[in-house]
Amino acid sequence: MPEYVRKWAERTLGSAEGVDPVDHLDQAPALDAAIAASWLFCPETVEYRGGIFLKRRFSSANVDRRLEEHDLKTTQATVNLQYLGSLFPHVESAESDDADDIQLLYALAECWYEVCTVRHPGRRIHVSTDEDPDGLSPAGPSLTLWTE
Fold first, then answer.
1. DSSP state of 108
2. 38 class by beta-carbon count within 10 Å (0-12 exposed, 13-18 middle, 19+ buried)
3. Is 30 helix (H, G, I), strand (E, B) or coil?
4. Helix or strand or coil: residue 148?
5. To which H or E segment does residue 54 belong?
6. What is the pLDDT, as a whole number, of residue 27?
7. Per-residue b/e over 78-108, b at no fewer than 16 CB within 10 Å?
8. Checking phi first, is residue 92 left (phi over 0); if not, alpha (psi -120 to 50) or beta?
9. pLDDT mean by block of 10 residues, the chain; 148 residues
């Protein structure tokens, strides 16, 4: 169970026994957060110049400029690169648990892979994760996707 759910259950319910993460969703602001999260786990994509790009990170001018200097794989991986820390810039890193962050990273990667595989049959989809175990990135763990 994610650490934040355990803490919430102990604070709100008095105990975390028998509680799972879905129980945490039964709160007023949780539905809005779940709807927003659906866009993160099931992102819109754009096909452009032979590549697949996350719509929220896509700009044709940016892709065109990058393709002048890099191959399609590198361009896709760069444009689609998403750091977890940049998704939650107003959340202090002390509020999250590293194990929960990594669980989120892997859940996103699995969803992105499945979503892109279904949407783009016949394309070879790659999703790569970086846990940033050494803490070298100020934005923490990251993931990206590209096609072949």
1. H
2. exposed
3. helix
4. coil
5. strand 51-54
6. 75
7. ebbbbbbbeebeeeeeeebeeeebbebbeeb
8. beta
9. 85 90 79 88 97 96 98 98 86 67 93 97 96 78 95
